Amino acid sequence: MNVIMQEKDILTDILVLEKDLCKNYGSYIIESSCPKLRTLLTNNFKACVGDQFCVYDAMAKRGYYPSKDAPSPEVQQAKTKFDGISQKMQPMQS
Asked: What pTM did the predictor assign?
C-alpha cells in the first residue's frame, strides 16, 4: 500500500524530531565534562533550536499550528516567576 504524506504530516514529523533533538542535546550538554564536546553540543543545540523554530514558523504561517499570544498579565506573571528563580540561583553560580 502506497501512503502519500501530506505537507502538514511531513512538517509535524519534522517538528517532533527537532523537538526531540533539542531535548537530547540539552541532556548531553549537561552530562558532558569535556569542554570541546560541550562546545560542539552547545553549537549543535543552538542550530537545532533555530531549525525547530523555522519548522514551527512554516507550520504557523500555513495554519497548521495555530497559536495565540498569551495575555499580558500571564506573560508578566511568568517573567516575575522566572526572574525570582534566577535571582535565587545567583549565589549558586558564584
From this structure: 0.73
